[in-house]
Design goal:
Blueprint: E1 3-7, E2 10-13, H1 17-29, E3 35-38, H2 58-67, H3 93-96, E4 104-105, E5 116-117, H4 146-160, H5 171-184, E6 195-196, E7 201-204, E8 207-210, H6 213-217, E9 228-231, E10 234-242, E11 245-253, E12 259-263, E13 267-269, H7 275-282, E14 298-306, E15 322-324, E16 334-339, E17 353-360, E18 369-377, E19 383-388, H8 393-413, E20 414-416, E21 423-424, E22 461-463, H9 478-496, H10 507-512
Parallel strand pairs: 1-12, 2-3, 2-13, 3-9, 13-22
Antiparallel strand pairs: 4-5, 6-15, 7-8, 10-11, 11-12, 14-17, 14-20, 14-21, 15-16, 16-17, 18-19
Family: Belongs to the GMC oxidoreductase family.
Domain Glucose-methanol-choline oxidoreductase N-terminal: 225-298
Keywords: FAD, Flavoprotein, Oxidoreductase
């Protein structure tokens, strides 16, 4: 039995980057608004949501990672030194991505066996790589006004303090860019040539410090002049609705088991691409596209020797990433090349090594989906999920082309490390799950939300995160999903600033559409 214990103007479910965008923009625009952020996991850093790259004590880091693992309370024995897992024997690499520190599997043995999630304040933003490329070509959402989308991407970059200049003076990265650019830049627009990867990080005394949710919030939680409250270890078990609109949320305190409701007319579900549709399903909000169009991108990697770079790659983690931007026709991949710390190499090497990665787009298909049980419950008491994802024949061909491309890139830099071949990471490894609450231009059964992320037919209910992205993407999706959250937050501010709003789409939604 639950009792009404509180009232909020806005409830945000999930404390990751997109939820933080809503909290920050709404609090800045309408300061009197009461905002409640609920997070099922604990705060593992101080301030809450800080990236774990700021944690230098190994014991403290272990405790933070274990606390983020939801149902798992054990320390993982295997870690990977980079996305290519070059420090793990080849036969064990797939397994290294099935149990990753700070994460827990969501559907072990399913069709995306490496799919993982985090349960802590900040979510995966306490551990992400912080890559923030802008989408281009077919990656962009064609029904959004280009200027509106670009403006929102700019806001997201400013909130995260994104820059591409942290390693501008590195001779190694500069030489890598020159070599690759000489072979790949012909015919590309100037802003899509080989270049440093935009990233949300700073370099402090030779150490990399990546941006987390605390950067986006900007001290909001500690400002007593603001009306923003964060409740940790608090599970949202249902979004409550009546007469086509949000009326509140049902919450369960995971420490005590007590259940309460919070009355509100505005809810943002930003619980990641798998748990956002899970909560909507548990709440009886089940549009036809819910959980469908599950999409990620495959990753193909190779360790390459850098010829002509002897003695130029210093030890330590502070190193940049060369970005080979996606191009629809000439390079249908998102490429990243990173020199590897020589102290992490498994064998003495006469040449420096680099990790060469390609993210490969996959076809968007309604049959690829996450489904939920009406009867079984998971560790948190929500409907058990199952992932169903099958690459298309065209996806297989694109992955084959990526294998050839990654070999070519390694030969432009030197050659593949002896014994290494292009490696396709196990499905789900990217952690970039998209499409499950996808955006659309009309309520035609193929989308869950409108162009400002409000769920069709449910006033006051917004969804956020990578699941909102409806397109076939290769680049890291975080910046795009934050930009879509900017558009949603603006619409929410419009609604909060008016005494009464009717209809499913405001003027902000109309302005966002071509």
């Amino acid at each position: 039995m639950s009792e009404s214990t509180d009232v909020a103007d806005v409830v945000i479910v999930g404390s990751g980057l997109t939820g933080a965008v809503y909290a920050r923009l709404v609090a800045d625009t309408v300061p009197a608004v009461r905002i409640l952020i609920v997070e099922a996991g604990p705060a593992v850093t101080e301030p809450p949501g800080r990236h774990l790259s700021h944690v230098t004590d190994p014991g403290e880091l272990d405790r933070a990672q274990v606390a983020s693992q939801g149902p798992l309370r054990v320390r993982h024995g295997t870690t990977v030194a980079s996305g290519i897992a070059h420090n793990v024997p080849r036969g064990q690499r797939d397994g290294a991505f099935l149990s990753r520190p700070g994460l827990f599997p969501v559907d072990p043995g399913g069709s995306l066996p490496a799919a993982q999630a985090a349960c802590n304040v900040g979510g995966m933003a306490t551990q992400w790589f912080a890559a923030c490329p802008r989408p281009a070509g077919a990656e962009r959402i064609d029904f959004l006004d280009p200027a509106v989308l670009d403006g929102a991407l700019g806001v997201a970059e400013r909130l995260l303090r994104v820059s591409a200049r942290q390693f501008a003076d590195s001779p190694v990265e500069s030489r890598i860019r020159r070599r690759l650019g000489a072979a790949l830049d012909d015919g590309r627009a100037a802003h899509r040539r080989v270049q440093p990867l935009p990233m949300a990080l700073t370099v402090e005394n030779g150490s990399v410090r990546r941006a987390g949710v605390d950067v986006v919030l900007g001290g909001l939680l500690g400002d007593r002049r603001r009306h923003v409250v964060l409740r940790t270890r608090t599970l949202c078990s249902r979004v409550l609705t009546d007469d086509g609109g949000v009326t509140g949320v049902e919450l369960r305190d995971l420490a005590t088991g007590s259940v309460s409701t919070v009355r509100t007319g505005h809810v943002v579900v930003a619980a990641d691409s798998l748990r956002t549709p899970q909560l909507l399903f548990a709440s009886g909000i089940r549009p036809p596209a819910l959980g469908r169009y599950l999409n990620e991108h495959a990753q193909v990697s190779l360790a390459a020797e850098l010829h002509g770079f002897a003695g130029e790659v210093p030890a330590g983690p502070a190193r940049g990433v060369t970005w080979i931007p996606y191009d629809d026709l000439t390079f249908p991949f998102h490429g990243m090349v990173t020199p590897l710390d020589p102290t992490t190499l498994p064998v003495p090497a006469p040449h420096p090594w680099a990790a060469v990665h390609l993210f490969v787009p996959q076809d968007v298909a309604a049959g690829n989906r996450v489904t939920f049980s009406d009867d079984e419950r998971d560790w948190a008491g929500l409907p058990v999920m199952r992932l169903r994802h099958r690459p298309s024949p065209a996806d297989g061909a694109t992955i084959g082309a990526a294998r050839e491309a990654v070999l070519r890139l390694s030969r432009l830099l030197g050659r593949p490390v002896e014994g290494e071949v292009p490696w396709v990471h196990p499905p789900g490894s990217s952690l970039h799950y998209q499409g499950t609450v996808r955006m659309g231009v009309s309520d035609d059964g193929t989308s869950v939300c409108d162009p400002v992320s409000q769920v069709w037919g449910v006033r006051g209910l917004y969804v956020a995160g990578n699941g909102v992205i409806p397109t076939r993407t290769a680049c890291n999706p975080t910046l795009t999903s934050m930009a879509l959250a900017v558009l949603g937050a603006r619409d929410l501010c419009d609604r909060l600033g008016r005494p009464a709003v009717v209809g499913a789409a405001s003027g902000a939604a109309s302005a966002a559409v071509r």
